[in-house]
Design goal:
The protein is an alpha/beta fold and 314 residues long. It has one domain: Ribonucleoside hydrolase-like (Inosine-uridine Nucleoside N-ribohydrolase, Chain A). The strands form 4 sheets. Strands 3-2-1-4 form a 4-stranded parallel β-sheet, with helices on both faces. A 4-stranded mixed β-sheet has the order 5-6-12-9. A two-stranded antiparallel ribbon has the order 7-8. Strand 2, helix 2 and strand 3 form a beta-alpha-beta unit.
Length: 314
Amino acid sequence: MPTKVILDVDTGTDDAVALMVAALSPDLELIGATTVNGNTAVHNCTENTLRVFDWIGLPLTPVHQGMSRPLARPQMTQLNPASRIHGDLLDLPPPTSARLQPGHAVDWLIDTLLASDGDVTLVPVGPLTNIATAIQKEPAILEKIPEIVIMGGAHDHGNSTASAEFNIWLDPEAARIVVNCGRPIRMIPLDATHRALVSLDDCRTLRALGTPAGEAAARFVEKRIDGYDATQPMHRAGAAPVHDALAVCSIIDPSVIRTHLIPVDVETGGELSVGRTVCDFRFRSGRPANVHFAMDADEPTFVAMLMEILGRTA
Ligand code: RIB
Ligand code: CA
């Protein structure tokens, strides 16, 4: 039985790969996508998400647009590295069939979860503004959420600051609400995604798949590699993380990551550490463990999953 998922995205290049994996995997049923301010303005995230679904031949996948700015902090200007890694609009044609659905994403999330059998996994891979707003607006959705699988966070090193990963850093108040909501949480942070890189050789293999998803993923990852090599080089040149896709793959095959069940909270008050996911590996806080936090990933398994799934067509 496929796992039902909703992806909450700030579609940029790795969100785009995650959307294609979620849409094409036989192990998942993508109920829909909600867009949120993050890598670029939310209307661009929406346009990019529609381009992806149109490109892979699934234009009827529901897309709803969400929050355009963080809960409590001023809108942060885009980071230069992010614009080179993502850009504002994806290198795909504008949609011809896919259409934005009416209604705010937060309301659609609430209505969909309340009407569900409690079997829809939430997969936020951008800032957590939509998810936090939905929880605050209608707490009754919580009992309907079996798990929240988040791409975000960092223990060892950040990417937006020394302390913080972008999705958490852009809206730390929202992240803190979600992390402490009481539902099962699996967090795929930079500590895992930076250990599962996709290379230029892999892009050649993706393109050779001869599928729309393979071609698009090759384009997006090549752009990511260019951006990473230029602005935040990984431990090997010519390769880049595809953060959001690893989060989705961890639902299909949990063995692709290695997690620790620990207390995790989000710093919202620090000057140098705001947006840090504070991981209490030694249980010093006396608080209960609330997050399955991934500290490692299996790169060959991840890449093989991408090849298998993106080699499919709708
Ligand atoms: O830090 C990586 C995360 O920030 C990814 O989700 C990427 O798409 C950006 O949103
Ligand atoms: Ca993202």
